[in-house]
Amino acid sequence: MPDRLQVETRDVAPRTMWLLGLGFAVFIAGSAFGLLLFFSPDPPWAFDRAAKPEPTLQISPAADLAAYQAEKRQALSRAAEAGPGLRVIPIEQAMRLVAQGHRATVPPAATECQGAACPGATPSARTIP
Description:
This protein is mainly α.
């Protein structure tokens, strides 16, 4: 047996451990600061937030829905001119005419007319009866 025990004097350089600890502390502090900056209510990159108006809530949603439905019902129940040779009729009348077998026929404009679809054109072999 040896009369004197020999032990290791050092495993890792203390300077390396201090630098590693300091680097870890800087990383943790930087991460915390980054998260705080990212999740803050007014981040520095959101300058246009003040220019946008706040959203407004409906005071009475039921009344708003009823007014919207009344407006759409009125639009469906009135007759109007839709263009040259076209007329918009109330939806009730249109459903009654379709149920009776009537179909709308709109002649194509002269610029849109091509082939057998043109009035007065002779039927071709591709025309479906």
